[in-house]
C-alpha cells in the first residue's frame, strides 16, 4: 500500500506541474526569448515530449537516485537539497520533541491537578487558535528583537549554535500541535483514571507514580502515539511557513523559491520527499499501534 500510494502521489505531483501554467523554457531563455530559442531549449530539456514519456524518464531517474537537474541553478537537485535537508530534519525533530514531551507532561499535569489544569486548558485553547506564522511574529518581536535572547535569522552552524537559532522556529512550529497534544493527553488520562482497575490499585496502596506509569499512561498511549505520528507528519507541511519567517535555508523555503521560479525539477523532488516522509511516518504509527495494543492485530487477523 505504501508503494502504491507513492506511485499515485508521484503521478499527481508530476501531472500537476505538467498542467501548471508557464513554461520553464521561457524562464531559461531570459527576457529576450524568441520562439526559435524557446523551441531549442524545449528540445534540449525534453520539454516537448509527451506526458507519459517525460513522467517515465523522471520516474526512471528517481529509481536510480537521480532527482533531476534544476532549471534555474543548472545543478543536480540532490546537490541543492544536500545542504538543506539537515536544517529541516533538525527543526522538525526539535519541534517534535517539544510537542511530545511538553504535550504529554502538561496533559498529565492537567489531569492530576485540577486547579493547574484549568489554567493549562485556557492556555492550550489559545495555543490551538494561534497559527504558526502568528506565533513566529510574536516570538521574533519579544524574544529576538526586544529581549535579544535568540537569533532571528538562519539555522546556525554546529550543534549548539543550531540549537540556539532553531529554538524560536521550533516553538512557533510546535505551539498549536503541543496544545492539541496536551488536551488529548488530558482527555485520555482522565478517561483512564475513571476506570475500575485504577481505583482497585489505589485501594491496594499502590503508589501514585506507578499508577500513572503502569495503568494510566500505558493504556492512554495508543491515541497519544497515533496523534504523535500525525503531528510529525503535519510539522513537515507547517515547516514551510516557519522556514520562510525565520529565513532558514531548508526544504520548505527551497520549495517556495523553486515554485516562484518555476523550477519544476526541484518542486517535484521536494514535494515527493515530503509526501514519502508523510507516508512512512504514518506506516510507522500503524506498526507502533500494533505493538502497543495486540487487540488491533487480533482484530485484523480475524
Tags for this entry?
302 residues, mainly alpha, MetI-like fold, 2 domains, 80% helix, 0% strand, elongated
Query: Biggest β-sheet, characterized?
Result: none
- What is the H level of CATH, i.e. the homologous superfamily of the largest domain? MetI-like
Which word captures the global form? elongated
Number of helices: 13
The helix-strand sequence is HHHHHHHHHHHHH
Q: What name does CATH use for the topology of the largest domain? A: MetI-like fold
Low-confidence stretches: none
Provide the helix percentage. Answer: over 70%
CATH architecture designation of the largest domain: Orthogonal Bundle
Number of strands: 0
Total count of domains: 2
Mean pLDDT: 80
Portion of residues in beta strands equals under 5%
CATH first level of the largest domain: which class? Mainly Alpha
Structural class computed from helices and strand pairing: mainly alpha
**Straight-line distance between termini:** 20 Å
**Over the alpha carbons, how many angstroms does the gyration radius reach?**
24 Å
Would you mind describing this structure in some detail?
This protein is mainly α. The protein has 2 domains: 62 residues, no CATH class; 222 residues, MetI-like fold (Orthogonal Bundle), CATH 1.10.3720.10. Helices cover 80% and strands 0% of the residues. The chain has 13 helices and no strands. Helix 7 packs across helix 10. The longest helix has 39 residues. The protein is elongated, with a radius of gyration of 24 Å. The relative contact order is 0.13.
Amino acid at each position: 500500500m505504501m508503494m502504491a500510494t507513492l506511485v499515485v502521489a508521484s503521478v499527481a505531483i508530476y501531472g500537476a506541474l505538467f498542467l501548471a501554467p508557464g513554461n520553464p523554457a521561457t524562464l531559461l531563455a531570459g527576457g529576450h526569448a524568441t520562439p526559435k530559442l524557446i523551441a531549442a531549449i524545449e528540445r534540449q530539456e525534453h520539454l516537448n515530449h509527451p506526458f507519459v514519456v517525460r513522467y517515465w524518464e523522471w520516474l526512471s531517474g528517481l529509481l536510480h537516485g537521480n532527482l533531476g537537474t534544476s532549471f534555474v541553478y543548472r545543478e543536480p537537485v540532490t546537490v541543492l537539497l544536500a545542504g538543506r535537508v539537515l536544517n529541516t530534519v533538525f527543526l522538525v525533530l526539535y519541534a517534535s520533541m517539544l510537542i511530545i514531551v511538553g504535550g504529554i507532561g502538561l496533559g498529565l499535569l492537567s489531569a492530576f491537578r485540577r486547579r493547574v489544569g484549568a489554567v493549562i486548558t485556557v492556555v492550550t485553547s489559545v495555543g490551538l487558535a494561534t497559527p504558526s506564522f502568528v506565533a513566529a511574529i510574536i516570538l521574533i518581536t519579544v524574544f529576538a528583537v526586544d529581549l535579544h535572547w535568540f537569533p532571528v535569522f538562519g539555522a546556525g552552524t554546529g550543534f549548539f549554535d543550531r540549537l540556539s537559532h532553531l529554538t524560536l522556529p521550533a516553538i512557533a512550529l510546535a505551539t498549536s500541535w503541543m496544545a492539541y497534544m496536551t488536551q488529548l493527553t488530558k482527555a485520555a488520562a482522565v478517561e483512564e483514571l475513571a476506570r475500575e482497575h485504577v481505583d482497585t490499585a489505589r485501594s491496594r496502596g499502590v503508589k501514585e507514580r506507578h499508577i500513572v506509569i503502569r495503568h494510566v499512561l500505558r493504556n492512554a498511549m495508543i491515541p497519544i502515539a497515533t496523534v504523535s505520528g500525525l503531528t510529525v507528519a503535519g510539522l513537515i507541511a507547517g515547516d514551510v511557513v516557519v522556514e520562510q519567517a525565520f529565513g532558514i535555508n531548508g526544504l520548505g523555503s527551497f520549495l517556495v523559491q523553486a515554485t516562484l521560479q518555476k523550477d519544476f525539477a526541484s518542486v517535484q523532488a521536494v514535494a515527493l520527499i515530503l509526501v514519502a516522509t508523510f507516508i512512512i511516518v504514518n506506516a510507522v504509527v500503524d506498526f507502533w499501534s500494533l505493538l502497543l495494543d495486540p487487540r488491533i492485530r487480533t482484530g485484523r487477523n480475524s
